[in-house]
Each structure stands twice: as C-alpha cells, then as structure tokens.
Design a protein that fits this description.
Layout: H1 2-24, H2 33-42, H3 54-78, H4 81-89, H5 91-96, H6 100-121, H7 127-130, H8 132-137, H9 142-167, H10 175-205, H11 209-225
Helix pairs in contact: 1-2, 1-3, 2-9, 3-9, 4-6, 6-9
Length: about 230
C-alpha cells in the first residue's frame, strides 16, 4: 500500500494529496494518513527536489480532510436521530435494550460537547474519521462542523507534513511511532468502550430522580390509605 501511495503522489502532486487525504477521511475507505502526510511533507524537502510547496501542501491536505470528513458527516446524517429513535422503538431497541429516550440523551450530550469533540477528535488517530459520524447523526450545523474539522485537521496536517519536510528521505523512519500510537489509541478506545458499557448498564438500573420521587409519593400514598 505504501508503494502505491508514493507512486500516486509522485505522479499527481497536490491533486494526489487532496484525493488520498479525502479518501482517508472517509469512513468507507481506510488509508494511513501518516504515510500520506509524511511523504507529502518529504516532497517539499530539498532532499527530494522540493517538488511541492510546504504551505500549499498543508492547505491542500486540509481541504482534502474537510472534503472527506463532510462525506462521512452525511453518512452519519442518513442515520439521523429521528431515524434511530424509530429503530429504538421497535424490535432492535428491545434486543439492545435501547429506548428513544436514550437516543435523546446521547444527542443532547453531543449538542453540548460536539464542538470540542470534533476539534480534538480531528487530532487523534482513529477518532479522526469516526467523529464525523455522530456529528452527522446529531445534525450538527454543517458550517460549524466544517469550521471545527478544518481547524483540527490543520493542526494534524501541519504537524505531520512539517515532520515529513524535516525528515526528507528518512520520512519512513518515524512510521513505527505512529503505528504504536494507533495501537495504543485502539486499546484506549476498547477500555473506554468497556467502561462506558458498565456505566450504561448501572445507570439503566438506577432509577431517575423523577422515578424515585414518583415511587416515594406512591409509597406515602399507600401508607395514608392504610
């Protein structure tokens, strides 16, 4: 895969960066962003003939990030909250023990924390692509999504392209670092998922304040009737 990416970018330059980065940011296709961006940075180094401009490579990569993330956003948008609530009201909801109220709570959380989630998510391996899905599902305003995606992507792209620029011919020497980072990130996601599931089921068993108040009133009412 690395050889194919290198060949494609050598042939198409800026257009190659845009297409590959846009594809990497699409949930339907997974490409190693570190390879694309590091080699893109290396192409700006004098050691490789300075084929590309460093600032322009960063701009093109960021435009590609936004384009690809927007496609994934719309994939999430197809699974919008109202559609999920209908699924939760049916057999699927019973199987997974999910109610429309659960969907509303998750949607409310993303409405409150979505901005920072998208911004930080764009700077983290794996999360970079996945974060666009809940943004689309919760119908986060597209201009706001594009803004935070653009800012977060600019940070990530600038970091990797600049590293590639300084490493030049040795750009592949740092790939193992990013591979390890992705492994660690995958492990963190797995742990967080387990913690979330434990918290979720405990929360489901715990009565809400409204339910507790209602139960207390019923108990007091039964006591008076006796």
């Amino acid at each position: 895969m690395i050889e194919g990416i290198i060949s494609f970018m050598n042939t198409w330059g800026y257009l190659g960066i845009f297409i590959l980065v846009a594809t990497e940011n699409n949930i339907l296709a997974i490409l190693p962003s570190e390879v694309i961006l590091l080699f893109g940075g290396a192409l700006t180094a004098s050691a490789l003939g300075g084929k590309l401009s460093l600032p322009l490579a960063i701009i093109v990569a960021t435009l590609g990030s936004v384009a690809g993330a927007t496609v994934t956003y719309y994939i999430g948008n197809i699974l919008k909250t109202e559609r999920l609530k209908k699924l939760a009201s049916g057999k699927l909801g019973k199987i997974f023990d999910i109610t429309p109220d659960d969907i509303d709570k998750a949607d409310k959380w993303f409405d409150e924390k979505g901005n920072i989630s998208v911004l930080l998510g764009r700077c983290l391996p794996i999360f970079r692509t996945l974060i666009s899905i809940p943004a689309g599902m919760s119908e986060m305003p597209l201009p706001k999504f594009i803004f935070y995606t653009g800012v977060g992507s600019l940070v990530w792209n600038t970091l990797l392209i600049t590293i590639g620029h300084h490493l030049g011919n040795n750009w592949q020497s740092i790939l193992s670092v990013f591979d390890n980072a992705q492994t660690i990130m995958a492990a963190i996601i797995a742990v967080l998922l387990v913690v979330f599931l434990v918290w979720w089921f405990k929360l489901r068993k715990k009565p809400t304040k409204k339910e507790a108040k209602s139960a207390k009133q019923d108990k007091e009412s039964d006591g008076k009737n006796e």
